Amino acid sequence: MTTLTDTRAPRPALIRALTAPKGFGDQTLRDRRPDAIELLGGIPDPSVLPSREIAEATARVLAQPGAPALQYSRTEGIPALREWIAAREGVPVERVVITNGGFHGLALAVQTVLERGDLVAVDNPIFPLFLRGLELSDARILPIGVGRTGIDVDDLADRLRAGERTAALYTVPDFHNPSQSTLPTDQRRELVRLAEQYGFVVFADNPYRELRFRGEQESVEPFHDSDLVWHVNTFTKTLGPGLRLGWVVLPAHAVPDVVALRSRQDGHSSTFVQAVIAELLTSDPLLFDATLERARALYRERADALADGLEAEAPGAFEIDRPDGGLFLWPRLRDDGVDAARLAADASAEGVEYQQGAFFASGPGTDAERRLRLAYGDTSAEQLREAAHRLGRALRRQGV
Amino acid sequence: MTTLTDTRAPRPALIRALTAPKGFGDQTLRDRRPDAIELLGGIPDPSVLPSREIAEATARVLAQPGAPALQYSRTEGIPALREWIAAREGVPVERVVITNGGFHGLALAVQTVLERGDLVAVDNPIFPLFLRGLELSDARILPIGVGRTGIDVDDLADRLRAGERTAALYTVPDFHNPSQSTLPTDQRRELVRLAEQYGFVVFADNPYRELRFRGEQESVEPFHDSDLVWHVNTFTKTLGPGLRLGWVVLPAHAVPDVVALRSRQDGHSSTFVQAVIAELLTSDPLLFDATLERARALYRERADALADGLEAEAPGAFEIDRPDGGLFLWPRLRDDGVDAARLAADASAEGVEYQQGAFFASGPGTDAERRLRLAYGDTSAEQLREAAHRLGRALRRQGV
């Protein structure tokens, strides 16, 4: 593992286990064209974030006598926000802890549940930043394939029966990042059953769940019915990443440990942000769903514009599963003769940036290196068609 | 050490080292009267927090095209805020990292600098929550006395010469919590010289510095001139704890480690909060100092009202050093016959709540158990006089 810097004093084991960014998350890979179209991150479009309503909620919150939004609050979160979330999730309020966004919830799970060096079953392909999060506990990984219906629970069962023992399992159950697949409800039940049987904890990372724009939602009840599941969520993709506001539905028995840890780290999430968002959500009970409806329509339009564009500009070059939600397309190169790394470089030269599929593999046995992760959330349909055009040109540089 | 809960799986060492609250921080110690006057915490008064201006800044920030305040930002903090802080602190912007408040800065220091089990020299008496923060690294402590001029640097030097080796030292240099003493500039220089000589890191925790209402400021240059000092600060006591917004001026070589750690924990402080406060501070360059002037005048009035009240209501009972700043009075009981624990219970029965001095000892050799920590920040002068009256009645229950 590559360490980051040399310092005068020996660095503690916690810090020594943190590796330098490479591949995904490395901002220095190449120079971009000034007119580059960036399909890099799962970023919500500003046009579907309720900026004006947030400003209005802020004005109301700060006009309250004594401005309680500017004062200390409890580590678990403020009651109004926890209650709104608990009602929406259908769980007791005591099981909801407010976080500084979804990744923070995962970090709290990693630190609270895992002993250093523990084995953790993870998605393959995977949201790569979670692997970096696991470095907080210097964890080892057991990659489990993710297909068109989410993580392969049967393969996991086989591994467990064969004697593998994991302390936890990490998966994105809805609109998986990067593959966009969703784990069916019966497979969620089976996953939780395995957790109960073998005694591991499930980290269910669910930032995209509310962004379904086609089809029917799968149930989260299997997660909420178990006291071995941490169901990690966030307002990042719906109200804005910059708020840094999320939550975890977690087993009641684990709440005191999380509170003990957080009261030694950052104390509590910003009372100000929590109070503003609680005011936003409760003062107009229709606002959140109306916001989501606008977002879903926009992302459906963009997903289709990108898929249509690729089919028109590079006919037959990609196998494309149109996503039912989320912010990513995960097309597979049909022609094994195409050099995927060269394609990314040529695409960059043509003026389109994306994440290479290879960055998302957590182990062998995946076709991730034959895929591209194209994020369409914050790019207009017109620009997405232009991106497809540029990608087609990049492909033709390899004679495709 | 008392653990918090029993769970089904063994808990990791990180969590096992976190003890249950006792004394300071334990909210369950006693029932309070409904009309209790609470002198418990270093809480800024809402009347001197710029609520209206924060709401106005929010409206301007959220009206910006594309609402960048709602998007992801860099782990170190947004440039506008870091630059404002760097200019005020007189340090290069690269050495400023934005945090979720002062305690978060301390937690990052503990996790980045200390190996588990390290020895840390600490204030005695001490801000007790820092001892809980040290549990993140399961650290051992070497208590160093704090007198009328801050931490006893000569005693520290003697201990070091005698062979004690500490990985770090923790102190509150300005308006020490709880004792209100301030470390003179020459002692800051000597402290940093010892750090250089013996190779330890200084955690200088400075939340009250801007609240000087009498006398001349001591210099922070000795801290900023050394690459062994983490100078931890926050907007908590000046713009409001609920923002959860602070910063650390730290050695340049340590910044990548902090960024690596935080990018695995909470990613970055709320872009929204950072952008609002940067707008607040830069749109009217006079606002911050005008806010501080109002706050200082208020806290001076309150400190004096409380000291005057105690002298009038319990003549001769206390030795009182009037503070030059900060939010606490730290009077000493002159009569060794007074039972300090009983006094706190009697005061509670009379309707005044405070923190017993005994909660603040980090080791033997302090007179903390003969003292009271009375927080006056968020209580009116009239109520402070009533609190002094009630405390006088509580003393007379013991025949004083």
UniProtKB/TrEMBL annotation, chains A, B:
List, separated by semicolons, the cofactors it needs. Answer: pyridoxal 5'-phosphate
Domain of life, per UniProt, equals Bacteria
- Pfam families hit by this protein: Aminotran_1_2 (PF00155)
Q: What keywords appear on the UniProt entry?
A: Aminotransferase, Pyridoxal phosphate, Transferase
| GO MF entry, a single one | transaminase activity
Q: Which CDD domains match?
A: AAT_like
Which residue ranges does the record assign to the Aminotransferase class I/classII large domain? 47-391
Q: Which PANTHER family match?
A: AMINOTRANSFERASE (PTHR42790), KYNURENINE_ALPHA-AMINOADIPATE AMINOTRANSFERASE, MITOCHONDRIAL (PTHR42790:SF19)
Protein name according to UniProt: PLP-dependent aminotransferase family protein
* Taxonomy of the source species: Bacteria, Bacillati, Actinomycetota, Actinomycetes, Micrococcales
